[in-house]
Design brief:
single chain, alpha+beta, six-stranded mixed beta barrel, about 20% strand
């Protein structure tokens, strides 16, 4: 009986490890997708005319980059007239493609000034189902058509801000790097080209340790270079930790933490399984040795 119980425990550990490792890898993959673009926090928010000029400038470049300006408004009321239900959500006003901010799920195109994207939880609360594509809802006295839903973040509505004269000022810009270009380089080049004061959110500090290579100066003996690089990285880390996070940035942190936590837990299950196997084998060897000694005596 003990033999079968032990095997059952090993199988449970193996199955749990597989589930945790798969879940962790899935969340890490989503986090990596959110991290692939440069996110600039702006010291001075930009208006619609500034963003239009930026797009003209990018169009004139030999290799212009795509970007999306965005900002968040919290705790706004969304109304579904079809059901008479309301819900409090955060509004994510964008000027560009939603895919640069949320690379998975439905996409809201830059020219779509009538559509919106909604999270599944809010869709179910408003309409009783997450199958709501083509349905309408009202926000701030205007009707919007739902183009699609996404699983997370929760309680979020994404809209193109096409309001003339009353549009929101955008305090974030997400920039897609050119092929082969680093996220850091893309953010720095964009800021210089458009004369804006934008600080890059270094999400790679959470994702891996490759950024430690940036601490190394041109020459190992350049002590002033070491000091300057350490000071620069300290400032970037402080900015990352102290910046008030939007719902999209909190989603990244959640995916990263859950992903790493699940992978570590899966690794612990595998370690526990190996420990149990080793213990069983050791005990079996001890029993064999005892039997051999008994026969000799």
């Amino acid at each position: 009986m003990k033999k079968y119980a032990g095997r059952a425990v090993l199988l449970i550990c193996l199955a749990l490890a597989g589930i945790l490792m798969y879940s962790g890898a899935r969340d890490r993959k989503k986090a990596a997708a959110l991290e692939q673009n440069a996110v600039l926090t702006l010291a001075s928010p930009v208006d619609r005319e500034t963003v239009k000029q930026m797009r003209l400038t990018e169009a004139e470049q030999e290799e212009g980059v795509s970007f999306t300006a965005w900002a968040q408004e919290e705790n706004k009321t969304v109304n579904a007239e079809a059901t008479g239900r309301t819900k409090q959500v955060d509004l994510l006003w964008i000027c560009g493609s939603s895919q640069q901010l949320l690379p998975y799920g439905a996409i809201l195109n830059p020219e779509d000034d009538q559509g919106c994207l909604l999270d599944e939880e809010t869709a179910a609360a408003l309409f009783g189902s997450s199958q709501v594509e083509g349905m309408s809802l009202q926000v701030e006295g205007r009707e919007w058509v739902i183009r699609g839903v996404f699983p997370s973040p929760r309680k979020l509505l994404i809209l193109q801000d096409t309001r003339e004269g009353e549009g929101i000022a955008w305090n974030r810009i997400t920039v897609s790097p050119k092929p082969g270009q680093s996220v850091r380089s893309a953010g720095e080049e964009f800021s210089v080209r458009h004369g804006i004061t934008g600080t890059l959110l270094r999400w790679d500090f959470y994702q891996n340790l490759l950024w430690l290579g940036e601490l190394v100066p041109g020459k190992w003996s350049d002590f002033s270079g070491w000091s300057e690089n350490i000071r620069e990285k300290s400032q970037e880390l402080r900015h990352l930790l102290q910046t008030e996070k939007s719902v999209m940035e909190l989603e990244y942190l959640k995916l990263y933490r859950f992903g790493n936590g699940a992978i570590l837990a899966g690794g612990f299950c595998i370690w526990a399984e190996l420990f149990l196997l080793l213990g069983r084998r050791t005990k079996r060897n001890e029993n064999i040795c005892s039997s051999c000694k008994g026969e000799v005596s």
